[in-house]
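BUG: 3D viewer hangs when loading the predicted structure for this chain

Environment: internal workstation, default settings.
Expected: structure renders.
Actual: progress bar stalls at 90%.

Input used:
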Amino acid sequence: MTPANPLLQSPPARILHVPFPFSFKPPLRRSAHPSRSLFTSSRSFTRTRLNNPPKPLASSSSTMADSNNLSTVFAEDEAKFGFTREEMYSSNLAGTVNPYDRHLFLRHKSYTDWASRVEEDLLPKLLSSVLKSRKNDIPVKTLLTVIEGEESDGDVLIFPEMIKYKGLMDSDVDGFVEDVLVNGKPWASGVQETFTGSYVFVCAHGSRDKRCGVCGPALIQKLNEEIELRGLKDQVFVSACSHIGGHKYAGNLIIFSPDSEGKIMGHWYGYVTPDDVPEFLDKHIAKGEIIERLWRGQMGASTEGGDKTEEQKLPNGTEAKKNEKHEESAAQKTKENVGGCCQGANGFTCCMTASSEVSERKKSEETIEVRGKTEMGRSTSWVESWEQRDVLTAAAVIGAVATIAVAYSYYRRLH
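Structure tokens produced before the viewer hung:
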């Protein structure tokens, strides 16, 4: 009798199931064990993890490096375009604003979305074109500037009248200019609103000039912080504005607020830094005092153009002399004006267009004066030359007559 195979006699119930390591290969004959596919997938998963470990997350050191690089870029921009750049305070600011009597501000988009020539967008361009075509009909010299709008696009603020019209559309421009600016009456197609308070417009037109793009937003942030600290949010309002002329004077801002007599004045400032903001709020806006060292000019000031103004009275009664560094050649001025320094018509410019004309006229007058003096000198010299010749001739004639008389007298004695 053949002995029984002990393996075949072993009951399946006695087979023990123990946890297998991932490297264990189960017997293929035992159907009681888990299927091979489970172990195969587990083994493959383990092999995949060992052979292709996941990429580590960005370490804190690499994140810090990126942050440092970004800080370096910001520092370079600040040194080249910000408040510590070399050209800061290199020019005397008084007299760098052309005279004008009214300022229009058109709300249009966010300042971060402005193109370099935002005045060439449809609505600003239409308004500027109509102003130019009607400049001889508008009684006062007016300046147009674009300010940030977003939800209030098309609103128009007018200073010093302190009136506002909402929602100017492309089709409304002709009627608006005719009614409000030419005839000086309320706009027939809109509702006139009056407003109060102080308004600060900061040039933040970074796509036009990087200096304004670096300095402007920093000033706006600081102004809003200080205004909130003083509880003035319902009295002082800050907006970014487009190019107003004088990139090299950034940070540039214009403040419209009542003076000591309650009259609305528009004062322009340059080289303004965040450190100057408390002084502007506490002195200019609160007390109507001008910050003389940063003052460029004002709306309504009848000055003779920026670079040729030798002396200009500041509103506080003191005088500021122009710095020779600030003077530029007439050719440079002409080139800047032709390129479209800023938007506007009927004097709607922030460039020193008058200065080049004054310069050329003065040069011409000086040339004529010098020529006149030269010709006069030549005439005097010619007259003097003739007088001297006449004297010599007369002396020679007298000498000859005397000689003849003496000779004749001697001849008579001999005879």
